[in-house]
Prior knowledge:
elongated; four-stranded mixed β-sheet; CBS-domain; about 15% strand; 4 domains; five-stranded antiparallel β-sheet
Amino acid sequence: MLLLIILLTILISAFFSGMEIAYVSANKLRLELDKQSSPLNSGVLKMVTRKSGQFIATMLVGNNIALVIYGIAFSKLLEPVLYDYLHTDSAVLLVQTLVSTLVILLFGEFLPKTLFRLFPNALLRVFSLPLGLFYILFYPLTRMITTVIHLLLRRFLKSTGNGEAENRVFSRVDLDHFVKDSENQQSNENKEVEKEVKLFRNALDFSKVKLREIMVPRNEITMLDVNIDIETLRQKFVDTGYSRILIYEDNIDNIIGYVHSSAIFQKAKSVRPFLKNVLIVPETMAANKLFSRFIRDHRSIALVVDEFGGTAGLVTSEDILEEIFGEIEDEHDIAAFIEKKINEREFVFSGRFDIDLINEKYQINIPESEEYETLAGFILFHHESIPKVNMTITIGRFNFKILKASHTKIELVYLTIADD
C-alpha cells in the first residue's frame, strides 16, 4: 500500500512540475489558434491559464501536497529496512533523506520537466482535463494565497496589479515561435503557405534591419555635378530611365539635393532652380524608422551617409518594402545580377549578391556577419584587398575564382565548394 502511495505521489508531482514548465514554454499563439480543433480542451486551458498567478499557485500547491505525502510514505517504507542495517536515528534520517530526494528529483522534476519542455503545447492539451479538475479543487486555497500576495505587494512594493486582468496581447516571442513551428510544418506542395510564413518572418525581423543592409551603394548611384547644363541632365534622364538623379557640388560626398525628371520639360539655364531637398540619414538607422519618416514627411528617397559624413548609398521606399514583401522592381535595381548553378558544388554569382539570399536559396551556408552583406564583401573581408581577374581565393571550404573585377569592386565569381 505504501509503495502504491509513493508511486502515485511521484506521478502527481511529475504532473504538476511538467505542467508548470509546459505553461512557461508553450506557444501561446498556437494554443489560441488550436481552439477550433478541440473546443473542450481549449476551453479548459483558457479557464486555467487566464490568470498566470492563479495557475502557478495551483501547480505549487498541488506539487507541495504531493511531496508532503510522498515524504511521509517514503519514510514509513524505508525506516524498518534501514534500522536493520543502521542503528542510529541520525544515520537512518540521512540515508532516508538522500534516497527520497534523489528519487523525487529524478522522476518528479528532471524527467517530467525535460519531457514537457519538448512538447509543451501537445501535453497541455492532453492533460487539460485533469489540470482543470485540480484547478477547481484547489481554487479556494490558491485564491486566498494569491489575494494575500497581491495585498502584500500593494502594501510593501506599491504594486497596482490586482491579478484580475491578464494581458492577452501576444509577445514577439510567441509570434516568433509560431512562425518557427509553421516553417517546420510547411510542405513543398503548399507554396502559398510558404510565402505567407516568409512574409510573416520578414515582418518580425523588419525592426532589426539597418539601412546599410538594404541601400544602393555609392558606386551604383547616378550623380551629376550641379554645374552641368540642362541638356546634359536631360540626356542622362533619357539614358538611365531614372525619375530622380542626385546632384552634388564639388565632390560626391557633398550631395545638395536631387532633380526630378519633370525638370527636363522646363526651360532654364542651370540645374539649381529644380533642386529638391534630399533626406539625409545615417547608415546605422533602422529601416522601419526611416519608413515611418517617409510616410510622415511624404518622401520616398533618402541619402545614406557613413560615420564620417561621406556618401554611403541611397535608399528608396521600394528598398524598404522589399525587406517585407520580397523583390520589387524599381529604377535603381541592377537587372544584370547573375546566379547560375552548374552542379551541387559549383556556382556562378554576381559579387553584389546578398549572402543571406544565396544561403536561403542554395543552402550553401556561407558564414554571415555584420561586417559584410554581399559575396564580394565576404571575399574582401577575408582577402583584405581587391583581387585580380582569374585569381583564385580559398576561404575555408569555399574556392572563389574571380571572373570579372574592376580596380574598385568584384563583379563576378565562380564558386567551388570543397568536400567537408
